[in-house]
Amino acid sequence: MDDFQIFFSIALGVGLSAAVGFRVFVPLLCLSIAAITGHLQLDNSFAWVGTWPALIAFSVATVLEICAYYIPFVDNLLDSIAVPVATTAGVFVAALAMTDVDPFWRWSFGIIGGGGVAASTQIATTKLRAISSTTTAGIANPVLATIETIVSSILSILSVVWPIVAFILVVLLFAISWWIIQFIGKRLLRPFRKTPAV
What we know:
Blueprint: H1 3-22, H2 25-36, H3 52-68, H4 74-97, H5 103-136, H6 141-161, H7 163-189
Helix pairs in contact: 1-2, 1-4, 1-5, 1-6, 1-7, 2-3, 2-6, 4-5, 5-7, 6-7
């Protein structure tokens, strides 16, 4: 594998891992479709992802996950357990993207790169939903859920079709999310913080 192919695989893994941070099963469904249609060649150890039973399972899981985020309080409950789930899925999709690579480097990249990116993305979306729940009493949460699903879908498709574009988009998303949380979020939450008694 040459340097360009390695970077290509890394970009694919990072894009999919970031998508997992928004919705766990959307990238897996996209991978399954890409493998079945021949747009993505999977390693033999991950060949099961490109089977019809896997496609059906990922489809059902994707629909259930998307719908659950539109149910009040359930969305916040999902956020409380999503970080470890997204991290695990991020490790998996990142390792899956690294074909023809020594298993040590594959899983090292999966754990550090994939797991780290997925966890960071999920933590960012959890904080954004917490801000939304506090400032709008959850009214804006369905809008946020829709945006997350759209971003996850776009990232998943771009990762398979144009991994380098997806990689650049991930960097931009991290910068935007950090700015929203650090600046806008703090200003919005300021009225909700209790002032110390004099």
